[in-house]
What does this fold into?
Amino acid sequence: MLLPTANVHEKKTLRSLRRDPLFSGSIMATGRGELPVEPVGRSVSCGGDRATVRYVGPVEPFEGLWLGLEWDNPERGKHDGSHKGRRYFTSRNPTGGSFVRPVKVSFGVDFLTAVSQTYEFNMEDVLKEEIPISSKKLEWSDVQERRFATLSSVLLNHCEVNGAGEAGEIRRTTPNVKWLDLSRSLLSKWEDVAAITEQLEQLRGLELCDNRLSLTSDPWAHQQAFRSLKVLALNSCSITWLEILECAPMWPQLEELSVENNNITELQRPEGVLQMLKILRLSCNPLKQETVCRLSSLPRLEQLNLSETGLSSFQLEDADQASCTAAFPSLKRLNLDHNSISEWRLINDLTKLPDLVKLSCRNNKLLSRDGNLNTVNQMIIAKLGQLLYLNNSEINPAERKGAELDYIKMFGEEWLKAGGPGQPSVEFTLQHPTYQRLIQKYGAADEGELKKPEPFALKNQLLKITFVFPEAEQKPIEKKLPASMVIQKVKGLLYRLLKVPVSDLRLTYTSPKMSGTEFDLDSDLKTLQFYSIENGDQVLVRWS
It folds into this structure.
């Protein structure tokens, strides 16, 4: 949720203020059939859908006035703006246009009319709560003005706002608004938005999702209108990244920008704009992966969401350097969920981002030798020593240690062939940039511990495990269990053998390779393989 919900008192509704003297002269609503000045280019609603007026005039051979509309949803229309061989306007989509009578469309209402319709107050409640008996002769308009002045968040999504109304009325009536939602409105250009926001001096967050806004010719002229803006959402606005950069001079203090689901393909480098940006959401845009690196120069960017963008990989601009990069100097959180990433090179590049502590990489195509998803996660943890969270789960010390030890064993044979203790080959170092660090941390694996590549088959996944009971008079039990078996099912097996409630069981394991050390099996949803349990290991079973 980008913007906070309104307070309870901000949601009370009883009756319209259209009749109220407070708003006389400021209401700029346009009824159906009434055309505003310069209707071409204005956004309208018609039959529950929205469109932009592209033509006003006659349509032969019919009598009377018609409006030529280009629908936001092109499937709503019937033609491209021409009729019987004559072109009246041009629709970007061959079925995006229609002709309708003016009486069929609404040009919307101004900001304060929408506020009055959405945030009406009960006069009796106001008098009981706030107005002394001696003051009950106070004018209703004065009471309403006082209550509207308390609004800190105004949510007008789907309210057909078309503009600011009379100059200065917003500043006088709703001076304390910090969060504003104008999603799916009838605003048609950035000048209309600026006319509203310039009167909201405390505005910090603005949602303009699902609008069609024409660009302004001079974005620098509107800096004052967005001088305090920190958070902006432009999801589903059919806006390109280049258009965003053209508008960006209007938002000098912007820290959080959401432009999801805009069909953005190519990214350009932000030159001199968006330099304060900390959070950028680009999910659900079909990005050209070779252009992602153009965001890497943003100096303060801490969070980047690239989920559902069709990425199979992307490369940092200076990725050929051995151990460091100037790209994404402040990046801490990266979301790569629901993509087609299959190359480990991308994960290797991420090792060069020292501040990256949270990574989400679910539903991709990264593979391990054994085809096990848990092994993929182990490899990511081992490669990215700076990570604290993977896929929204905190990486505890035992998980990291197990992943790193297993990684050493998994690629130990390749390491030896590539030069081993001397100087591994450049090719091996590029594929495993953290391997030498792990060797320095734990030492090289013995030859007998090395995991040689084997085809994925069930017989290779069965582990011979001995259950021992150090605090009970129970003989050890030997079992062969699949490496993919989760701890929860192991406890279920022990319940059937011992008749001890699962909730009372506490499991640890020891390995003859690390004699005297016990490792907790503290996550019921992790597999035996995740904890690097191997043939011959012992699982110690205790219960309360």
Remarks:
- The chain has four domains: 43-104, 148-316+326-374+384-393, 375-383+394-456, 459-543.
- Residues 39 and 53 are 7 Å apart (CA to CA).
- The domain at 148-316+326-374+384-393 is CATH 3.80.10.10 (Leucine-rich repeat, LRR (right-handed beta-alpha superhelix)).
- The two ends are 44 Å apart (CA to CA).
